[in-house]
Amino acid sequence: MSNRFAGKVALVVGGAHADESVSLGFAGLSALEIARAGGKVVIADIDDEAGERSVAKMRDNGLAARYVHLDVTSEPDWRSAVESTTSEHGRLDIMIMAAGINDRGNPIETTDVKDWQRVMDVTNLGMFLGVKSVVGAMRESGGGSIVLISSMMAHIVRDGSSAYATSRAGMTHFARSAAVQHGPDNIRVNTVLPGWALTPFTTDAFDDEMMARFARRVPLGRVADASDIVGSILFLASDESTYVTGSELLVDGGVTAWIGPTD
What we know:
By secondary structure, the chain is α/β, with parallel strands linked by helices. The chain has one domain: Rossmann fold (3-Layer(aba) Sandwich), CATH 3.40.50.720. It has 8 helices and 9 strands. The strands form 2 sheets. A 7-stranded parallel sheet has the order 3-2-1-4-5-6-9, sandwiched between helices. Helix 2 links the parallel strand 2 and strand 3. The model has no long low-confidence stretch (mean pLDDT 92).
């Protein structure tokens, strides 16, 4: 499957960390693997320094990649990213949306309205603007695949983080709506629901002790790393899943299937 993405153009949002010399996120590793498999990749993020560094290393290794700045809450930024992609490559086949933000784990009663709104804006407004912005270009390309990175927290919750869990659940239902509306355009829309994983997003939020506690709660006995999750993202992005749309793919090591340790 070395040329699995040959001829495909992918816009990978939230993928600035695609540099293997540092910790890789889901989107960054997805961008890297798509390019390695013959695709052309446009990485979009707000972390311009990391994005430019990642793209420079990818190009040094002979991969087709470029970087664009994108604030997912800005419709003009989305338009610019899509126009930049299609003007350079003439098409858009794949969009992976992994931008996200966590809340502070506060109880509902003490959650600040601005903090709640910020989570909703980045996650839910961002996905809405993303799908709205890419479907026209995908339709002109004959169809495409949109993969929204949600979380197992769309199905379960922990103390606090009500905004995060609610926003991730919203992603899954929005994906179903978009899948139904754009099925006639041959545009597929799916969500991936990762479990606990070691990524740049989580290492700042959870210390080693908490990650060890999470691992005891996983039937497979460990938290994931990015490579454990990315295979599912790439499956949904690729032509191997041409009859899959409106679906949720749980990649959680069995957490949501288990009541948890009993001792």
